[in-house]
UniProtKB/TrEMBL annotation:
Signal peptide: none annotated. One of its GO terms (biological process) is axoneme assembly. InterPro entries: CFAP46. This is CFA46 protein.
Length: 129
C-alpha cells in the first residue's frame, strides 16, 4: 500500500527495492515530490525487471498516465526525484533486465558492500573491473 511505502522510506537509513518494472510505478509521484526523507542515506533500486506478465501489466497501467508521468518514472528522473527528496546516495539500474541478471546484481552488490566492505562508489564500479 502507499502508506507502507511512505512508512518505509521515511523511517529508514537505507532502502532496497527489488522488484518488477519501474519503482516509481509503485509510489505516488505527488507524495515523493512533497516529502523530505534526509534520514534515508542510500536507496538501491533493482527494478526494471521485465517478464511478459509484468510488461502487460505496466502497459495497461501506462494507458491511464500522461506522457509526463511516464517520463518521470525513467531511471534518471527517478534518481533526481529521490535526490530532491533528500536521499543521500542512489544506486539504480538503467536498463531492463531479467530476473536472473537482477539476482546476480543483488548478490554482487551485497558481496561488495557487506562482505568486502567497499564504499558505494567502489561497489558500483566493481562489475566494470
Amino acid at each position: 500500500s502507499q502508506a507502507e511505502w511512505e512508512r518505509l522510506l521515511t523511517n529508514c537509513s537505507a532502502f532496497l527495492f527489488y522488484g518488477m518494472e519501474r519503482f516509481m510505478s509503485h509510489v505516488l509521484l505527488n507524495w515523493l515530490a512533497a516529502v523530505n526523507i534526509p534520514k534515508c542515506r542510500l536507496v538501491i533500486l533493482l527494478d526494471l525487471v521485465r517478464s511478459p506478465q509484468s510488461y502487460q501489466r505496466i502497459t495497461n497501467s501506462d494507458i491511464h498516465k500522461s506522457c509526463l508521468r511516464i517520463a518521470l518514472e525513467r531511471p534518471t528522473e527517478t534518481a533526481m526525484l529521490l535526490s530532491l527528496a533528500g536521499v543521500g546516495s542512489i544506486i539504480a539500474t538503467q536498463w531492463y533486465t531479467n530476473l536472473g541478471e537482477n539476482a546476480e546484481r543483488l548478490e554482487s552488490l551485497f558481496e561488495n558492500l557487506l562482505s568486502f566492505g567497499k564504499t558505494t562508489g567502489q561497489t558500483v564500479h566493481a562489475p566494470q573491473e
